[in-house]
Fold:
Amino acid sequence: MKGKDLDGENIFITDNILHKVVACLKADRSGVLVGLTIRGEILITGCLSCDDITNTSQIETWLPGGISVKGEFNQSKNNKNLSFSEPIFHASLINHDVIISFDQQKTKPRTITLTEARRMLQDSTFSLKLIVNTKVDVMNNGRLSVRSENLISDETTFFVPSLNILIKSCDDGEFVKCFPKSDFSNGMEVKIVKSKSSSDNVAPVLSCQPSSHAVYQVPVRFDGLCYVNKDSSSNKIVTDLNMTLRCFLHSINVWLESYNKTSTSLPVLQFFDFNVPGWCHPVSICYPANQSDDDLAQYRRETLHPLFCESCERPIFRRANSLNLDKEFSKELLVNPHETLPCPKLVDGKVYTVHGLYSYHHYMQDNFNDNGWGCAYRSLQTLMSWFRHQGYTNKPIPTHHEIQQVLVDVGDKPKEFVGTRKWIGSIEVNNVLSEYLGVTSKIMFVSQGSELEGRGRELAMHFDNQGTPVMIGGGVLAHTILGVCFSETSGETRFLILDPHYTGGEDLKTIIDKGWCGWKRGSFWDQKAYYNLCLPQRPTLC
Amino acid sequence: MGKSVLVEDHIAAYLQLLVKNKSNRVGVIVGKIGTQRDYVVKLICCPFKESSSNDQVVDSAWVAATADEVSHMLPGGLHVMGIFAVAPMALSKDVQNGLRQALYSTHKLLSRSQHSSLKPLLSDQLQMWTLLHVDLVSGKTLLCRQYDMNDKTCAGKPAEWKITKHATTWIVLKTLIKVNTELYINLASYNVEQQLKGCVSSYCHGVANALVEVDGRIPTISDLLELERATGSAKSKKTKFMPHSKLGRTLTCQLYFANSEATDETVKEFKPLQLGHLVKLSGSIFACAYIPAKTTVMDGIKLLKADAILSLLHRCTLLSEEMQENKQNLVSYEKYISFPKRVAFTDSGKPDDFLYFDYVFPGEVIDDSVARIKETFDTILDPGMITDNIELFAPVKNENIETIIPAKEASETHSANSEGSFPYGSLLAAGAALLSAAIAYLSLSD
Structure:
């Protein structure tokens, strides 16, 4: 069974997606597997759970161009009334394994890592970014909808400004080969133009009718991704781009339908790209501009998270999670400086590090001289940056004085505290996280620095489960712990430290070479001093 | 010595003809102002004025009005670039002062209220116009001087009126552009001309910002208009054109409109608009431009676009004049309105010469055009020399096509090449009867 091909087709799927499919099938939920065909093989790039969906075009609106439904999964072989334009395979659980059947043949999918899947996608396709930035008419003909002729019609043609090329459906040969000197890079922008070439030469005729229709002239702005096989013909590219466009219009219309006919104002709809865990490429989601992330919480909980087979424990679809927002993150700060470090050489050592992104806060930044006293404040800022990067909050990183004010507000410090150079510790860090961000933390106490090495397993568990950076204060110093390397067999621990005492500029090489961010042994700690650690816990929200 | 104004032999011959006719003439110089040299393509005498209110040889207002009419007949790339006079040397002072005044009056009239879509297309056109005085007695050039039209106090620079066998070869850019828009628009508070121009305004901006494919490719900024195809297929070796032919290659262009950009980032909500009217435009317009060889393709494209926009706007003006004469208004108009169509003619009747244009309403006969061309362009043509199929009128069979018939002439057919001249006056009464019958027929036949 194992090596048997489906009509010569291999189906590649990432372990994460397979995991989601198994979980859905065990819960008797059904859905679809989406992806694309690369030289006869199928790469599955994502999965959607669609018990409630009755219409295939609803599924396609979530997908970038070039990605389509390749298979469906359900346990009870109930044929939904979903019909797809291409033949698709069927997947179900048999004896805890996902078995794929297609045309009487059965096989197992081939599991690959996300990195391998992304590489497959990158090697065989180039991505186009369809840019639309225009006003469209939204008509009220009983229901609100966009006049699609504004964007899609016979005249629609696609233009690639960087290559000075029009993509027209005429050639049958490989599109890329028609332009041998062109450099087809990823993410090339494509714009929509309308062909005005005429086939008849009748002089202009005008008609003018009175109209009582109310028209909304609404801006629409999106960059839609479209994955194009490198050996596609221009016909296929045009079809895929048209599909991308249609899906976006459909997304807009879906939102518009939920607005009452008698609404006096329509919101602007904005599109955001998100990385969904396990997916090989981002997905684009549309939100009305006049609803905040809190307003949209129900939509995320009840529609988006179930659709993408995600629990509602962590934010994925908040605006702050989106890839394209200019996030007001100080562009000057280094993000994840630890990533270039090689792993420590520890026998049977396993590395557990912070999940996601954080920014490196340290002495002297923002032209604020906190040299000698501000280290815990800087560590706290690093912790806060993690919650901003992962979309748990939009609040800005507080300054030292603002941090002090929070402690006053919460009753922890007297009001004279603000403006001083007084140190804070992990308890204060915990209080500020709680008051300012609503984040609770666990406090770990170590009576001697030499004991820290022995708490390696606990820290490993923290990084595994929570994945948040840890603030540690003791002796006269505060640091941030970004991870541990722990060996089950020897019990040895190495600590990945981010040091807020650095006073230089944002120079990654210096920071790494001089060890301001680096792996340290247990001897790094003051062996006699006692230490408190603040381990922030992820709020469960989405 | 100043700029050379290149003048081909046939134009010099025309001037000599005027000299031989022994009467003072004033007229318009048509051609192209280039960066290095100017090219004169035609000289057009102002028609004789019936009653001359003054004894001045040069009547500024009359010249300006003629030049305005002439400018509507010109294709893209060719413009009014100066004024000339054939007059005796003895009147030099008066004539030359008059010419100078006429230059500025004409420029002022021609450059009034330009539509905003034309600004990016025509803003880099040079405005050094030529003043020419030729002696009525000897035929010699008495004065050829150029003035900066943007500076009224300019003293002028001498220029060389240079007669040459072959000034340059011109590349022809032509295109047929679909005019199809559907827009919701508020028309209430405007007059007919403003209403019509309002209907086409965003279309004009679309033309101005359009991507243009020339001869099947999108040009880059540095591409030049070459006489022959640049890259070698065997065909390119065959020189199709005589070395000194006036017209070189004809390049067909296709336009692609970009979507107008939405700019306001901050607005989060939109209220509905009650605009009042839905205006639909359909059909196509023909545009062309003549560009001297070696000009950049981008400059050529600008002139082609300007021709399309100016042609459409001029048709709005003509149409609004007719509607106002018939006391009609766009908002109360129930049926389709046909724009006038463009018809083409050449100076000599020969095919390889510059195309000039006139506009004809449905229901007008070609002879009307002949008469206009004679009056404005000082050119006598047979009706057969006017090409009236570069654009066509919508077929009568379409329901509700109501054509605007100009009030002066009346006819029951739109026959293209009616022979002989038409006795207008005697048919006016009969024509009115026929007209109402025709309209009744058209509306009953739906």
Notes: Chain A has eleven helices and 25 strands. Chain A has a mean pLDDT of 87. Chain A touches chain B through 52 residues (CB under 8 Å).
